């Protein structure tokens, strides 16, 4: 069996992946701060780590993987949004969380095992902070609690910077209550109207970084296998998570492997809410771009490379998926192609996997490979799933069959114009034989592909689910036969 290899940001090397406990492989991924719709950039880590989750489930068994992706529902950005809109914080976070779950499902992601909301783990955060103070890694001052960065000598190891460099270059908040400008907030006081919880340091709320450390420890233990997120979080967020967790847990290494996806960009800049250069997953879905197409485009670039979103890629993905859906119906249940699995095991090489899917689909088309293999292989990427096939239904459908039939109709019209009714009628009869009723009165330049079918809905449904799409392969075969017979296939 091929070994899973992952590029560990902490060592900057591609390494063999060996879980601490193969009976329970554990992964934590930083989830969204819920005050606005997820933009397309936010969808990237959700998809990348979903593919990893699927791979781990495949290799270690579905019941032997625990995937945690949190919901940050206490954060100053949320408070600001509440103040702007006059809405309650609870309404905003509940609504945004629901949107997030719907949008992530629409792009084909499995639900993680746990989706902890920060507000439900305040007690664990307070306990962890108290522990850090007791161990000398944190101190309370003026209602705040700060992490003493100097107390953790490996601080900066993940992002490869020294504390002195960071101090020189960083825009850290200088505050009178800090021993060192680099120290970061674990707890801060809340004024009236701000969300707050009782604590040994008065009414207050947690800082963002401690949320992840506390939730990860509670659900996955002091040490677990994989920690993921976008590479924009490497510093300071992940650096701070590492420091807090190691110091609270007697030096135990928080995660064995750190994985970071690169950014989705718009004209060379990170797509982000703060820059305002974003569009949401929902915008695209509402525009009619199917979730499966979004997923495909995202996986067409390796997760460690920056990527751009272009209309051309969307169209290309749509064409490919249409074709694969058409080819993938029928046949046996199917087992995935081992080579595809090997690709994904090699640092989630989704690009190589897609290339292989093209090759497999060609084999299916030539009747050399069972369609079940295409389905099972695509499923490793979360593609071609039954419940996502709906997008094809009712859409205009263009493929090899319709193109050839189109050509046959044009030929028939040309023959009629030359008064060669015998051959024109023969074409009509041939089409009739394969269940296509020719409607007369069509002129050259009309769009015969749409007008030729007696039952217009049917052609659109041909590549839908199950047995219906079986017809589509049959139709393609028949159209090719007629194409050859009438010399319109070249
Ligand atoms: N453009 C992007 N490409 C890929 N991943 C991204 C992108 N923007 C954010 N992420 C990732 O999405 C997840 C949620 O991020 P977050 O809620 O902080 O969104 P954000 O757009 O970065 O917010 P802001 O713009 O306000 O900084 C994180 O794992 C983050 O790394
Ligand atoms: Zn986090």
Automatic annotation (TrEMBL):
Domain Cysteinyl-tRNA synthetase class Ia DALR: 339-392
Record-listed Zn(2+) binding positions: 30, 212, 237, 241
Enzyme class: ligase
SMART domains: DALR_2
Catalytic activity: tRNA(Cys) + L-cysteine + ATP = L-cysteinyl-tRNA(Cys) + AMP + diphosphate
Textual note on the cofactor: Binds 1 zinc ion per subunit.
PANTHER family the UniProt entry points to: CYSTEINE--TRNA LIGASE, CYTOPLASMIC (PTHR10890:SF3), CYSTEINYL-TRNA SYNTHETASE (PTHR10890)
Family to which the UniProt record says this protein belongs: Belongs to the class-I aminoacyl-tRNA synthetase family.
Subunit organization: Monomer.
Protein name: Cysteine--tRNA ligase
């Amino acid at each position: 069996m091929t070994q899973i290899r992952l590029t560990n940001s902490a060592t900057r090397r591609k390494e063999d992946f060996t879980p601490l406990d193969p009976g329970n492989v554990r992964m934590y991924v930083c989830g969204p701060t819920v005050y606005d719709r997820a933009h397309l950039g936010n969808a990237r880590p959700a998809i990348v780590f979903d593919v990893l989750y699927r791979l781990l489930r495949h290799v270690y068994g579905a019941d032997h993987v625990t995937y945690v992706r949190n919901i940050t529902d206490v954060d100053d950005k949320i408070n600001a949004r509440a103040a702007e809109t006059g809405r309650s914080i609870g309404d905003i976070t509940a609504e945004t969380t629901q949107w997030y779950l719907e949008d992530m499902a629409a792009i084909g992601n499995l639900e993680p095992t746990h989706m902890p909301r920060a507000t439900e783990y305040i007690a664990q955060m307070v306990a962890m902070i108290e522990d850090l103070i007791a161990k000398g890694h944190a101190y309370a001052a003026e209602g705040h609690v700060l992490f003493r960065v100097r107390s953790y000598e490996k601080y900066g190891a993940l992002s490869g910077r020294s504390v002195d460099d960071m101090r020189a270059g960083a825009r850290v908040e200088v505050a009178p209550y800090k021993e060192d400008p680099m120290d970061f907030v674990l707890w801060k006081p809340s004024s009236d109207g701000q969300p707050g919880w009782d604590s040994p340091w008065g009414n207050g709320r947690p800082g963002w970084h401690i949320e992840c450390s506390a939730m990860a420890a509670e659900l996955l233990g002091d040490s677990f296998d994989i920690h993921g997120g976008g590479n924009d979080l490497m510093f300071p967020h992940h650096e701070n998570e590492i420091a807090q967790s190691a110091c609270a847990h007697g030096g135990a290494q928080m995660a064995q492997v750190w994985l970071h996806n690169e950014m989705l960009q718009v004209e060379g800049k990170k797509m982000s809410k703060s820059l305002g250069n974003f569009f949401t997953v929902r915008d695209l879905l509402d525009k009619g771009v199917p979730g499966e197409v979004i997923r495909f485009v995202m996986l067409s670039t390796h997760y460690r490379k920056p990527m751009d979103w272009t209309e051309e890629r969307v169209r290309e993905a749509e064409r490919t998926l249409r074709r694969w859906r058409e080819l993938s119906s029928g046949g046996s249940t199917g087992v995935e192609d081992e080579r595809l699995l090997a690709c994904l095991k090699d640092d989630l090489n989704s690009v190589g996997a897609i290339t292989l899917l093209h090759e497999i689909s060609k084999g299916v088309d030539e009747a050399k490979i069972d369609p079940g293999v295409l389905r099972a292989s695509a499923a490793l990427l979360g593609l071609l799933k039954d419940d996502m096939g709906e997008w094809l239904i009712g859409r205009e459908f263009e493929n090899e069959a319709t193109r050839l039939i189109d050509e046959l109709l044009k030929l028939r019209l040309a023959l009629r114009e030359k008064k060669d009714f015998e051959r024109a009628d023969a074409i009509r009869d041939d089409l009739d034989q394969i269940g296509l009723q020719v409607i007369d009165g069509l002129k050259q330049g009309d769009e015969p592909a749409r007008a030729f079918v007696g039952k217009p809905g049917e052609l659109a449904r041909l590549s839908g689910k199950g047995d219906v799409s079986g017809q589509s392969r049959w139709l393609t075969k028949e159209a090719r036969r007629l194409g050859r017979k009438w010399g319109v296939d070249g």
